[in-house]
């Protein structure tokens, strides 16, 4: 075994299986120092929001336990310059190399590129791998060699690359340093909220960590995949995987999800590229597509991809945004979604689209305000998926919903929550409102929900106002 260790920098790949940087480090025969750097103070970075910090705490605890099973320990260090900290640690431990799996946020790419050069200048090898995506964003191209700008060609181009690489199993042993440097304590990082502990309900819904990610995937495949295509639209149905936070933190990789889904279908003698299974794989590829958009448009989180949208007359007053954030808009399906988000750190995709559309179109609030709120409150907050999705709903993005497609939240609620199970669960003030008025309680005779607010906007007027503003942008033709 080589005297010189390899420093393994964990980032958004908090797992031991299907972890190519870890596999390579172990295969080299070297001792390994696994490190996580908490770098949430650097200006210009999208530091993890409040909900994501809760997840991060538990995910790191789980990774630490898993590494201990392999005879090693996770070294924790906080810093306001992660690259410099890694460089110092590599030097002080006499490391031969630093390995990591790639991140695709623009600031991470810049940081990692500089670090690679700095390490090389120090005589330390630096190698990066792909653990987060099925294929690299630069690999998925149209026939003319450009990155696809809309989803269907993206899917076709990705499929033309063949099957993604098969995942590697977790190593049994990760040889530790003879004398590892002292680690900081996870508890000292204050990642968990205390006063008040607004995350108290999260434990009822989530168990962060690699093992529970695998369990969740298996349970989804066994019980929910068959009806995914239809069921995924109905927020009260248990037909979505809820893998998104596990995927964001890299507790499970998309290659694992892909290959397990394909194997599950083959075992049942079914075609994975038809019906519900294909639909699920396509959703996984929407994630890839979002990463491609971010990679090729680094200002996606901050600037409208279609620049004319910068002239939209946004309403920057506090009241509409605050009512939306608190789930008190008086529009039942919107309030249900916003309260689900606050209480569980998650919101169903159909309802995310409804809530985002309502904020941007009926309330005319800048999509970036919604993006920021989701960033802070979603456990799966992900720079690529969040910014691409907000721009998609706003109509300012690449593969965007047309500006005139303004969801009617009453009709959406009636169609996708027909018996009101989801809406009543999150908005208990509506318990006594009859089904036919549930999504428009202001029309119900006898005021059956006295504690529920009146709608913050007249839906028809709000729609007309948004359409007029879009037309002023020259979008009408
Ligand atoms: P499933 O339906 O089980 O899908 C499986 C996986 O595919 C998901 O875990 C996710 O990784 C991926 N996926 C599914 N739909 C999409 C999509 N539309 N775009 C990108 N990836 C997708 N997703 C995030 O992971 N992080 C975000 O910050 C995020 N912000 C969003 C903001 C808005 C306004 C909207 C409309 C959508 C956003 N999404 C985001 C996409 C989507 O809502 C979630 O990925 C999905 O709801 C997660 O639930 P699930 O794991 O049960 O999904």
TrEMBL record:
<feature type="binding site">
    <location>
        <position position="228"/>
    </location>
    <ligand>
        <name>FAD</name>
    </ligand>
</feature>
<feature type="binding site">
    <location>
        <begin position="380"/>
        <end position="382"/>
    </location>
    <ligand>
        <name>FAD</name>
    </ligand>
</feature>
<dbReference type="InterPro" id="IPR014729">
    <property type="entry name" value="Rossmann-like_a/b/a_fold"/>
</dbReference>
<dbReference type="InterPro" id="IPR006050">
    <property type="entry name" value="DNA_photolyase_N"/>
</dbReference>
<dbReference type="GO" id="GO:0000719">
    <property type="term" value="P:photoreactive repair"/>
</dbReference>
<protein>
    <recommendedName>
        <fullName>Deoxyribodipyrimidine photo-lyase</fullName>
        <ecNumber>4.1.99.3</ecNumber>
    </recommendedName>
</protein>
<dbReference type="InterPro" id="IPR036134">
    <property type="entry name" value="Crypto/Photolyase_FAD-like_sf"/>
</dbReference>
<dbReference type="Pfam" id="PF00875">
    <property type="entry name" value="DNA_photolyase"/>
</dbReference>
<keyword id="KW-0285">Flavoprotein</keyword>
<dbReference type="InterPro" id="IPR036155">
    <property type="entry name" value="Crypto/Photolyase_N_sf"/>
</dbReference>
<dbReference type="Pfam" id="PF03441">
    <property type="entry name" value="FAD_binding_7"/>
</dbReference>
<keyword id="KW-0274">FAD</keyword>
<dbReference type="InterPro" id="IPR018394">
    <property type="entry name" value="DNA_photolyase_1_CS_C"/>
</dbReference>
<comment type="similarity">
    <text>Belongs to the DNA photolyase family.</text>
</comment>
<dbReference type="GO" id="GO:0071949">
    <property type="term" value="F:FAD binding"/>
</dbReference>
<dbReference type="GO" id="GO:0009416">
    <property type="term" value="P:response to light stimulus"/>
</dbReference>
<feature type="binding site">
    <location>
        <position position="280"/>
    </location>
    <ligand>
        <name>FAD</name>
    </ligand>
</feature>
<feature type="site" description="Electron transfer via tryptophanyl radical">
    <location>
        <position position="367"/>
    </location>
</feature>
<keyword id="KW-0157">Chromophore</keyword>
<dbReference type="GO" id="GO:0003904">
    <property type="term" value="F:deoxyribodipyrimidine photo-lyase activity"/>
</dbReference>
<feature type="site" description="Electron transfer via tryptophanyl radical">
    <location>
        <position position="314"/>
    </location>
</feature>
<dbReference type="InterPro" id="IPR005101">
    <property type="entry name" value="Cryptochr/Photolyase_FAD-bd"/>
</dbReference>
<dbReference type="GO" id="GO:0003677">
    <property type="term" value="F:DNA binding"/>
</dbReference>
<dbReference type="InterPro" id="IPR002081">
    <property type="entry name" value="Cryptochrome/DNA_photolyase_1"/>
</dbReference>
<feature type="domain" description="Photolyase/cryptochrome alpha/beta">
    <location>
        <begin position="4"/>
        <end position="134"/>
    </location>
</feature>
<feature type="site" description="Electron transfer via tryptophanyl radical">
    <location>
        <position position="390"/>
    </location>
</feature>
């Amino acid at each position: 075994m080589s005297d010189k260790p390899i420093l393994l920098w964990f980032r958004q790949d908090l797992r031991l299986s299907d972890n190519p940087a870890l596999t390579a480090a172990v295969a080299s025969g070297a001792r390994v120092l696994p490190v996580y750097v908490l770098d949430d103070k650097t200006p210009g970075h999208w530091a993890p929001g409040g909900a994501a910090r809760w997840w991060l705490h538990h995910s790191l605890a789980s990774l630490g336990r898993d590494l201990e099973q392999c005879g090693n320990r996770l070294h924790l260090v906080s810093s306001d310059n992660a690259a410099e900290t890694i460089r110092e640690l590599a030097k002080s431990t006499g490391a031969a190399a630093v390995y990591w799996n790639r991140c695709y946020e623009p600031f991470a790419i810049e940081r990692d590129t500089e670090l690679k050069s700095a390490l090389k200048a120090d005589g330390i090898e630096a190698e990066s791998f792909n653990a987060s995506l099925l294929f690299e964003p630069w690999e998925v191209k149209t026939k003319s060699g450009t990155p696809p700008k809309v989803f269907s060609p993206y899917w076709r181009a990705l499929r033309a690359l063949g099957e993604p690489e098969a995942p590697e199993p977790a190593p049994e042993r990760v040889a530790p340093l003879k004398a590892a440097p002292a680690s900081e304590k996870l508890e000292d990082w204050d990642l968990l909220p205390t006063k008040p502990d607004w995350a108290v309900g999260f434990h009822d819904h989530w168990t962060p960590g690699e093992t529970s990610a695998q369990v969740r995937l298996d349970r989804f495949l066994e019980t929910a995949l068959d009806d995914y295509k239809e069921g995924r639209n109905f927020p009260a149905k248990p037909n979505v995987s809820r893998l998104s936070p596990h995927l964001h933190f890299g507790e499970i990789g998309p290659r694992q999800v892909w290959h397990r889904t394909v194997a599950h279908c083959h075992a049942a003698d079914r075609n994975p590229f038809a019906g519900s299974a294909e639909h699920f794989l396509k959703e996984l590829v929407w994630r890839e597509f979002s990463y491609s958009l971010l990679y090729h448009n680094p200002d996606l989180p901050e600037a409208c991809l279609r620049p004319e949208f910068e002239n939209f007359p946004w309403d920057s007053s506090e009241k509409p945004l605050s009512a939306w954030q608190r789930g008190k808009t008086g529009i039942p399906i919107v309030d249900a979604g916003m309260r689900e988000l606050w209480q569980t750190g998650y919101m169903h995709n159909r309802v995310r689209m409804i809530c985002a559309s309502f904020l941007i179109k009926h309330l005319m609030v800048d999509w970036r305000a919604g993006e920021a709120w989701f960033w802070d409150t979603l456990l799966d907050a992900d720079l690529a998926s969040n910014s691409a999705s907000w721009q998609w709903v706003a109509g300012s993005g690449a593969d965007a919903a047309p500006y005139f497609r303004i969801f009617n939240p009453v009709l959406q609620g009636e169609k996708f929550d027909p018996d009101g199970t989801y809406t009543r669960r999150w908005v208990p003030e509506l318990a006594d409102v009859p089904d036919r008025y549930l999504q428009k309680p202001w029309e119900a005779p006898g005021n059956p929900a006295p504690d529920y607010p009146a709608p913050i906007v007249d839906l028809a007027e709000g729609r007309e106002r948004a359409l007029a503003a879009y037309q002023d942008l020259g979008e009408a033709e």
